[in-house]
Predict the 3D structure of the following.
Amino acid sequence: MAKIISVANQKGGVGKTTTAINVAAGLAKAGRTSLVIDVDPQCNATSGLGVEPADRHPLVAGRPLAQSVVETVQLGLHVLPGSLSLADADALSASNRQRASQLREQLAHELSGYDFVFIDCPPSLGQLTRAALGASAEVYIPIQCEYFAMEGLSQIIDLARQTKARDNHRLEIGGLVLTMFDPQLELANEVANEVRGYFDDTVFETVIPRDVHISEAPSHGVSVLDYAPRARGAWAYAELVMEVMDRE
Ligand SMILES: Nc1ncnc2c1ncn2[C@@H]1O[C@H](COP(=O)(O)OP(=O)(O)O)[C@@H](O)[C@H]1O
Ligand SMILES: [Mg+2]
C-alpha cells in the first residue's frame, strides 16, 4: 500500500517541488517505487522530471489513473502529470468533504502498487492544497532558511490540524524540511535553530544546503541525484531519503 505524502507550504519558492522530486527520486533509487502527483497548475514537478503537462488533469479526466501515469527516465520513478488548464484546476479544487474522501479512496485503490506517492502542492492554502491534505497520510513542509521563514508556518500547520480534525483523521505532520541553507549566513543558522526550538523532532535532521546543482537539475529533466550525484545537494537529499525510510 502506498504511503501518500503531500509536500505543502503556502509560500512559493521554499523548495516544495524540489523536495518532492528529489525525495521521490532517492526513494526510487533505494528500490521503493515512487510516484509524484503534480497538482500545481505551474507544472514544475512535471517538467522538472522531463515530462510534458497533460491536456486534462489526470485527477479530473475521468479515466483510470494508471492510463495517465508517465514513466520518467529513472527506473521506479513515475509522474502523474499536472495540467496547465485553469479550468481543470478549478474542477480539481471544487472539493468538499465527500470529494476528499473519494480522492483518498481513489488514490489508495489505484496507486496501491507504489511504495510512496508525493503530492506536489501549489503555493497556497486554497482548495488544491486542502484536497491534497485530505487525501494524504502525511504532510512534509519545506522551510526556506531565510528571514520570514517562521511567518506563515502556523497557517499551514493549522490547516493540517483542521484537516485532521474534520476530514482525514490519520493525517500527520511527517516532517519539516530545512531547505536552501547557507552556513555562511548567520541568519540561516538562527532560523534553523529557531525552527528546531519550536518544532523539535518534527524537523528532519538533514538540512538541504543551497547548491546550484539542485536548481540546474530540473532543466535537464532529472533529479539532482542523477544530474550531479557527487554534489552536496545530492548528498543532502540522499540523507533525507534515509531519514524518510527510517520514519516509515
Ligand atoms: N537547495 C537549493 N539550492 C539551490 N536552489 C534551490 C534549492 N532548492 C530549490 N531551489 C530552487 O529554488 C527555486 C524554488 O524552488 P521550488 O522547489 O520550485 O519551490 P516551490 O515548489 O516551493 O515553489 C527553484 O528554482 C529551485 O530550483
Ligand atoms: Mg512548486
